[in-house]
């Protein structure tokens, strides 16, 4: 595996690869890699001649109350994982390389952000699209890989590609789950043993909501109410939100007559868990982004 | 010359040209082409295998008081000019092709804009960088050509390329002038014969200011005062602004010890004329963008 730390070298390397006719799959990360990231890399490995992963903890997407300096880092572990997934190139720039000075031109995400987790993370997605635009212009990928665990991020990236006419295919990758359905997350280790037993009910709650839609329910509020009830009855977690929105637009709709996301965030004592499912108007699972 | 109106065809055409190893020079315009545009195309023709020009009147860069619908258009004249300059491809999209729906993600220019002409055109450069980012992602140029007549636009494009790591070389092209020094402009026809006689003094005023710097003057305010005096004494025009700023940062500085722009706008009865010169700290003409 080749580790590249400068923008100049990354651009030159990509230009050469492109000239030789290679397709490039790109997995942007903030490091501290877990199974979800590895699945993204494995998908990229299957579909492209060359796989590039980046590790860059992007200060722009941290809010004033979110601790950029204390974001976990584990370089040795990450490089081992990346090698095992047969990634060809790790782009690993220093923050001064990516932001040598303050940006003159800001990107501001105007829609798809003021709901779900974005509601309490003002400016977060502005930072995400800024660094992604930079990375896309440096890496020139043919395909990019993002996990559906953060379905809101996928929706925002979809808007970025569409608004600015990038020639890049967005490949959303299904959430990786434990055998009992619990979405894998580095936060799961912070659950008590009782909470860990309850946590799979979050996914069960989503499935219950989806079943209602399959059976003909068309009112998002009814679905939200049922999912909320299920979580309250089967866990001691505190519901942060349960919402049912159009996807990827993430807008409230009166009637379930298009692709939707059903998404939840539940706060346990030491872990806030999120999960979601995307389905078409008849309740069938659907590809998130066409 | 090949005229392309869809983004899809433009992207496919460029991909093929790139694959064959061609370099692409790009001249984005809003049409109604004059000699300044033709010089951009001629420069692009000299330096690239393939020259692409675009004509697109971008609604996003018009303010509420600026009449987008009445922006002049002359398709036949433009196509003739483009052919004569041996442009290979004209990208000529409809507004619905470029903006099929409202943008979700806005670009906001935070610096370099609240001075000179930008001061009275709030949001103008936001629209400029938005459409340019789209066009760059569609045309994938190696080099882009902009006239130094609009030096502020060149400064903003410079920031766009740098902030977002585009692999594009910005080629600023010198202002085209009449034999007597007057900067060529489609607005010059609106000058009365008396005003037309006076108008070359705008450039003379700039040259006078630059001479002061050559002679050792380091205070921008002294230069501004001298240029203003010269314009007042030699024309009946009303000064809109005379300013002397760092370039391309467009910031006020105490001392002329770096590359500077000296820029003016003068309102005559039926024509507002702008002009500028860029020079290094010793008053020598300099390349605007390195």
TrEMBL record, chains A, B:
<feature type="binding site">
    <location>
        <begin position="147"/>
        <end position="150"/>
    </location>
    <ligand>
        <name>ATP</name>
    </ligand>
</feature>
<dbReference type="InterPro" id="IPR014729">
    <property type="entry name" value="Rossmann-like_a/b/a_fold"/>
</dbReference>
<dbReference type="GO" id="GO:0004592">
    <property type="term" value="F:pantoate-beta-alanine ligase activity"/>
</dbReference>
<comment type="function">
    <text>Catalyzes the condensation of pantoate with beta-alanine in an ATP-dependent reaction via a pantoyl-adenylate intermediate.</text>
</comment>
<keyword id="KW-0566">Pantothenate biosynthesis</keyword>
<dbReference type="InterPro" id="IPR042176">
    <property type="entry name" value="Pantoate_ligase_C"/>
</dbReference>
<comment type="similarity">
    <text>Belongs to the pantothenate synthetase family.</text>
</comment>
<keyword id="KW-0963">Cytoplasm</keyword>
<keyword id="KW-0436">Ligase</keyword>
<dbReference type="GO" id="GO:0005524">
    <property type="term" value="F:ATP binding"/>
</dbReference>
<feature type="binding site">
    <location>
        <position position="153"/>
    </location>
    <ligand>
        <name>(R)-pantoate</name>
    </ligand>
</feature>
<feature type="binding site">
    <location>
        <begin position="184"/>
        <end position="187"/>
    </location>
    <ligand>
        <name>ATP</name>
    </ligand>
</feature>
<keyword id="KW-0067">ATP-binding</keyword>
<keyword id="KW-0547">Nucleotide-binding</keyword>
<dbReference type="GO" id="GO:0005829">
    <property type="term" value="C:cytosol"/>
</dbReference>
<comment type="subunit">
    <text>Homodimer.</text>
</comment>
<dbReference type="InterPro" id="IPR004821">
    <property type="entry name" value="Cyt_trans-like"/>
</dbReference>
<feature type="binding site">
    <location>
        <position position="61"/>
    </location>
    <ligand>
        <name>(R)-pantoate</name>
    </ligand>
</feature>
<comment type="pathway">
    <text>Cofactor biosynthesis; (R)-pantothenate biosynthesis; (R)-pantothenate from (R)-pantoate and beta-alanine: step 1/1.</text>
</comment>
<feature type="binding site">
    <location>
        <position position="176"/>
    </location>
    <ligand>
        <name>ATP</name>
    </ligand>
</feature>
<feature type="binding site">
    <location>
        <position position="61"/>
    </location>
    <ligand>
        <name>beta-alanine</name>
    </ligand>
</feature>
<protein>
    <recommendedName>
        <fullName>Pantothenate synthetase</fullName>
        <ecNumber>6.3.2.1</ecNumber>
    </recommendedName>
</protein>
<dbReference type="InterPro" id="IPR003721">
    <property type="entry name" value="Pantoate_ligase"/>
</dbReference>
<feature type="binding site">
    <location>
        <begin position="30"/>
        <end position="37"/>
    </location>
    <ligand>
        <name>ATP</name>
    </ligand>
</feature>
<feature type="active site" description="Proton donor">
    <location>
        <position position="37"/>
    </location>
</feature>
<dbReference type="GO" id="GO:0015940">
    <property type="term" value="P:pantothenate biosynthetic process"/>
</dbReference>
<dbReference type="Pfam" id="PF02569">
    <property type="entry name" value="Pantoate_ligase"/>
</dbReference>
């Amino acid at each position: 595996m080749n580790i590249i730390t400068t923008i100049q070298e990354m651009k030159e390397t990509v230009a050469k690869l492109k000239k030789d006719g290679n397709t490039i799959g790109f997995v942007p990360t903030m490091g501290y890699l877990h199974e979800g990231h590895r699945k993204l890399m494995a998908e990229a490995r299957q579909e492209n001649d060359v796989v590039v992963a980046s590790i860059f903890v992007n200060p722009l997407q941290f809010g004033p109350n979110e601790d950029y300096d204390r974001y976990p880092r584990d370089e040795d572990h990450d490089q081992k994982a990346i090698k095992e997934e047969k990634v060809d190139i790790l782009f690993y720039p220093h923050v001064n390389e990516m932001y040598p000075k303050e940006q003159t031109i800001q990107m501001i995400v105007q829609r798809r952000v003021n709901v779900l987790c974005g509601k309490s993370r003002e400016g977060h997605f502005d930072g995400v699209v800024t660094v992604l635009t930079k990375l896309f212009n440096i890496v020139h990928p043919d395909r990019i890989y993002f996990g559906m665990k953060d379905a809101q991020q996928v929706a925002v990236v979809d808007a970025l590609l569409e608004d600015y006419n990038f020639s890049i295919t967005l490949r959303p990758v299904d959430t990786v789950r434990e055998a009992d359905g619990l979405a894998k997350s580095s936060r799961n280790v912070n659950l008590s043993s009782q909470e860990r037993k309850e946590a799979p009910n979050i996914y069960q709650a989503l499935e219950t909501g989806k079943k209602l839609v399959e059976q003909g329910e068309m009112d998002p509020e009814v679905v939200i109410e049922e999912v909320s009830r299920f979580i309250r009855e089967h866990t001691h977690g505190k519901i942060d939100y349960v919402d049912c929105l159009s996807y990827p637009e993430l807008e409230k709709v009166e009637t379930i007559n298009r692709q939707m996301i059903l998404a939840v965030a539940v706060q346990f004592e030491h872990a806030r868990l999120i999960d979601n499912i995307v389905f078409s108007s008849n309740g069938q699972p659907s590809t998130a982004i066409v």
